[in-house]
Design a protein that fits this description.
Layout: H1 2-18, H2 20-35, E1 55-63, H3 68-78, E2 82-86, H4 88-93, H5 95-103, E3 107-110, H6 125-138, E4 144-145, H7 156-162, E5 166-167, E6 172-173, H8 182-191, E7 198-202, H9 208-221, E8 225-226
Helix pairs in contact: 1-2, 3-9, 8-9
Bound molecules: zinc ion.
Length: 231
């Protein structure tokens, strides 16, 4: 099926070469739908929760990394329940971290098995299915899936639908997987806060802990509380 994707891409490039404007008109929407995280053209993406109250949902991606227990301690001190979107490969290696997340009342979501950020958008159906299913096998039952770097393709939604999973996006992010300054991260997040916002943070970076702490405090400073979507 990757052949099909590549063939379509080649046709797109050929049309673009001979008739650039027509080609771009044909190809651009597919690229936008594939690469833009919260866009719904290929199927539903939950990018905020239905509430008019000043409350947000904190999600933490890419664990369970070495800092998991420290993150859990921090969330405990702050009285915040979060959803951890984890990689199957790390969950398999550290089931005790998954158990700790659940034991402390947080939620675990599926964030694929190996987190193939560079290729997820062009993976064929069997590879998408394998990434989802291997992570599912390593974590407690969940209905929540977040795609690596928020990308999707034509095969993601059908695979999720078949497995009763919903695609979870986000509405407040700070690019904290690369941005190292906790103050900058917190400021970027609070700028996008709305009732029901889904806040995207990461763990496993050396600045993750202070970044999560500053962000939680900044969110609270804006008068928002934290949703516990243990579902
Ligand atoms: Zn990720």
């Amino acid at each position: 099926m990757r052949i099909v994707t590549l063939t379509l891409a080649a046709i797109g490039v050929a049309i673009t070469y001979h008739a650039p404007i027509l080609g771009m008109l044909l190809v651009a929407p597919m690229f936008i739908a594939t690469l833009k995280p919260n866009i719904q053209w290929l199927g539903p993406v939950v990018s905020r929760l239905p509430t008019s109250q000043k409350e947000v949902w904190v999600t933490i991606d890419d664990g369970p990394t070495d800092d998991t227990l420290a993150v859990l301690d921090l969330l405990g001190r702050e009285g915040v329940k979060a959803c951890f979107f984890v990689k199957g490969v790390l969950a398999e290696a550290h089931p005790e971290r998954i158990a700790a997340i659940v034991e402390r009342g947080h939620t675990v979501g599926n964030h694929s098995h190996t987190h193939p950020s560079g290729t997820w958008w062009c993976l064929p159906p069997h590879a998408i299915a394998r990434e989802i299913d291997r992570c599912t096998a390593a974590i407690p039952a969940t209905t929540l899936f977040r795609a690596p770097v928020g990308h999707k393709n034509l095969f993601v939604h059908p695979a999720l639908r078949k497995r009763g999973l919903q695609l979870i996006g986000f509405s407040a992010r700070a690019f904290d997987a690369v941005e190292r300054n906790p103050d900058v991260i917190a400021a970027r997040i609070v700028k996008s806060l709305r009732p029901g916002a889904i806040v995207l943070l990461h763990q496993g970076r050396e600045w993750s802990l202070p970044a999560i702490e500053k962000t939680i405090q900044a969110i609270r400073g804006r008068g928002y509380s934290f949703l516990n979507t243990n579902r």
